[in-house]
Fold this protein.
Amino acid sequence: MRIQGLGVIEDALLELHPGFTVVTGETGAGKTMVVTGLHLLSGGRAEASKVRTGTGKATVEGRFENVTAEQATKIVTDAGADVDEDGSVIALRSVSADGRSRAHLGGRSVPVGVLADLSEQLLAVHGQNDQLRLLRPAEQRAVIDRFAGDSVAAPLGKYRRVRDEWIAVATELRERSSRSRELAQQADMLRHGLTEIEAVDPAPGEDAELTEQVKRLAAIDELREAASAASVAVSGSAEGDPDVPGALGLLAEARRRLSATEDAALSDLEPRLAEASVLLGDVGAELTAYLETLDADPERLEQILARQSELKKLTRKYAADVDGVLAWADDARARLETMDTSDEALAQLAARRDELAVELARHAEDVSAARDAAARELAGEITAELAGLAMGQAEIEITVSARQAETGDPHELKVGGQVVHAGPDGVDEVELLLKAHNGAPPLPVHKAASGGELSRVMLAIEVVLAHADTVGTLVFDEVDAGVGGRAAVEIGRRLAKLARSHQVLVVTHLPQVAAFADRHLVVDKGTSGGVTRSGVTVLAQSDRVAELARMLAGLDGTETGRAHAEELLNAAENFKKTPEPVKASRSAKGAKKKAGSRKNS
């Protein structure tokens, strides 16, 4: 990612590690501009105040790699851009000093919303003021579904299939009931048209065939003259006139003369003449047969013209040709099947709607039960993670409740004695609640947690969900705010653990967190000619010791500080080399429980 003219950053190039990249620097050096740049590249709100003073605009350019997911690729191609052969695509966002913003993807100008849609598939930014994904009810439900896996996905798939049919049947029933008079009139018109068409009984392509026959009968004399002349030229005169031998006779004479010679070169030509004679013989026979069909029949011509008149009446009313008329008839029959407004037909539709509603309610209960079980397990695992993130008294609760239907809701469904809204993702509303400490009431997580705590909740969730399919890049801004010591080390360990399956970028001020990074970037601020500029530098291992010592309360110039920094780096390196224990998935746990139940029984 390249940042130009953004805040205090004049021009900086960031090469992120596929694993864990950390960004550090002095307060005010511009660390947060890195996250701001990602925010802009993700389609976030552009602010003119972020444009560097003295520059015309701020520009952020980034290359997204491994853009292979179907949904992400579709977003790129729908925008008119292409994913490169190596699976990457370049995105660019610029903000002018007057606040106007432009976006480009794959070299093409696109709406800013396209960058937002793409980034939602590829990265998630978790900052103190950027927790929108966690606050959205749909995202909270998605957290449960991602954690639950097949235990929710399977019944949810059945629910959606039944829901689609239920909606279709209910919609058709409402339409037939409310438009019965209009539909009856349309049905009468369709039946009248079908009666007319069936009375004429046209055949596919019949109009074109009759047109050819009319042309032939109208020009029968000219056709007979042409065919007769051609027949004479091929076969000779029917009266045997020696002056008009025909092509067949001439060929026979040529074959006779060649057969009589003893020259091999000439006699070899005779078989080829024989082949030509056979071909001409076939043509002559076909010409004779054609002449026999050319009998003048005035009555036949009148019959054809009368038939053409009948067909033209249909083509004037229903389509341009007979094939179109037949297609209209097929469509009319299909439409008539959906226009039956009789009491019997409406009763059948109502009965089918009610049957589907019962089945849908059963699937909705299965989905809710699976979510409820997953919610309890997920809440326990997140709470356990928070204990190591300086939130030892915090406890997560996840509630799964039915969304009540509003008055006039077309998708209301009775489930378990309640009238609820049957949405595409089920009937559930999911909410993450946080008890900040013992005795505190559970509140929505964004109300109970501070900015730093909210980031740590997101970190805990991402660590727990690391096994599930999610975005490939996770960004944490000041996730360690308000913590230190042992808790900071635990945060670093969890981020390093998360980096085993994701690309992780962290902006931090804690050396305990920075020590676990695979790549260390420092934002440096300097002044030249009265102008403050910041740049980004990749630190070598020896430079990392100095930077960590500086972060340790400014101990970069002391042996104690360097020793402490080296100790942090060694401990982090040893942790990253330790193999991660294999964690059983929820499906494996479920299979183990079932096996135990069978054994006990």
Observations:
- The CA atoms of residues 175 and 454 lie 49 Å apart.
- The mean pLDDT is 83.
- The longest helix spans residues 343-387.
